[in-house]
Write a structure and sequence with these properties.
Elements: E1 2-7, H1 12-23, E2 28-34, E3 51-54, H2 60-67, E4 74-77, H3 89-110, E5 113-117, H4 143-160, E6 164-170, E7 173-174, H5 181-190, E8 196-197, E9 202-203, E10 206-207, H6 208-220, E11 227-231, E12 237-238, H7 239-251, E13 260-261, H8 263-275, H9 279-287, H10 297-303, H11 310-313
Parallel strand pairs: 1-2, 1-4, 2-3, 4-5, 5-6, 6-11, 7-10, 8-13
Antiparallel strand pairs: 9-12
Length: 323
């Protein structure tokens, strides 16, 4: 039985990846790292199917002690502190960069493969070119993005020293159980509170099944060390088309055009939040007022993934009206 270590299984992507691996025909001996005092309800679905180790990724000493005494065939490093949370820069750095360094060292010592979950945020909230690709300039426009850039740098350096690593960069992901940007978008459209900009915007979301399928493919197949792939739905979608689709699912009619706002309003809001150094709100304004999409052609061709298109796939998270 191949020994596998997975971090981040209580998160949205990590949980979906673990579920897909457990549903696969291949048998693995799986160890997962979870934060101490994680509520039992968050791990009950996998009780008896995996071995649990309670370590906070930000606790470098505890993580180092564990990794010095355990080795695996493959490590799926998905855990991280996500952006927009109220943690210090030091907390972000320890959990997202130092923990990655320690896992890299473990993989190098044991000859393990590493499959790392990065983020399209390495290009910044809004990429300098589109579709963003491996040659697109990195942009540390907030500290979370900075930590992902730094983690990738350390992995790429270790690849030169023999590490067999692959990097997956999911876009903003949607699916049942997640309450991030796509969920909030649906909620605000339902309440007629979504501020629609009066210009054409393209956005590129990622269905949870696409990113979890990509992880499973890398786990089961050989890959070239240093492989780095963007992961998202097969094509970007116009924000207005998406909002209208959501509105039709909810009310059988398009989103009211009288709620459109001039692009100058969004530019003013972005400038204000930059002035007060609120990274979270700068990103929020940018995501609904500027285009962001990625080159995912290589991902689909290499893995032969079944294409998913945001329209109609986003129906997954649109609540059905009670009759």
């Amino acid at each position: 039985m191949k020994q596998i270590l997975i971090t981040g299984v209580t998160g949205f992507i990590g949980g979906a990846v673990l579920k897909k691996i457990l549903a696969d025909d291949t048998e693995y001996a799986i160890t997962v790292i979870v934060r101490p005092e994680t509520h039992p309800s968050r791990v009950s679905a996998w009780q008896g199917k995996v071995q649990y180790v309670e370590i906070d990724l930000g606790d470098s000493k505890a993580l180092l002690t564990y990794l010095e005494n355990h080795f695996f065939d493959t490590v799926l490093h998905i855990g991280a502190l996500r952006g927009g949370r109220k943690f210090s820069n030091s907390d972000y750095y320890k959990a997202n960069v130092v923990a990655t360094e320690l896992i890299i060292q473990n993989c190098l010592r044991s000859g393990s493969r590493l499959i790392f979950c990065s983020s399209v945020g390495v290009y910044g909230a809004i990429p300098e070119e589109m579709p963003a690709n491996n040659f697109t300039a990195r942009n540390a426009d907030n500290y979370y993005h900075y930590t992902k850039i730094e983690a990738e740098k350390r992995i790429n350096k270790a690849v030169m020293g023999g590490l067999k690593a692959a990097i997956l960069r999911p876009s903003i992901t949607y699916g049942l159980g997640d309450y991030g940007f796509p969920f909030q978008l649906v909620k605000m459209v339902k309440q007629h509170r979504f501020p629609m900009i009066n210009k054409r915007i393209w956005i590129h979301l990622c269905h949870i099944d696409i990113i979890s399928s990509a992880f499973l493919w890398l786990l089961k197949n050989d890959y070239a060390p240093g492989l780095a792939l963007n992961v998202a739905d097969r094509e970007p979608v116009q924000l207005r088309d998406l909002v209208n689709f959501i509105s039709r699912q909810l009310r059988n009619k398009n989103y009211p055009s009288f709620l459109d706002l001039d692009r100058r309003f969004f530019a003013l809001c972005e400038s204000f939040f930059k002035l007060i150094k609120n990274e979270l709100w700068v990103s929020r304004i940018q995501l609904i007022s500027k285009s962001w999409f990625y080159d995912v052609k290589e991902t689909y061709e290499l893995m032969n993934l079944t294409p998913i298109y945001t329209i109609p796939a986003i129906k997954l998270i649109i609540p059905k009206e009670k009759k």
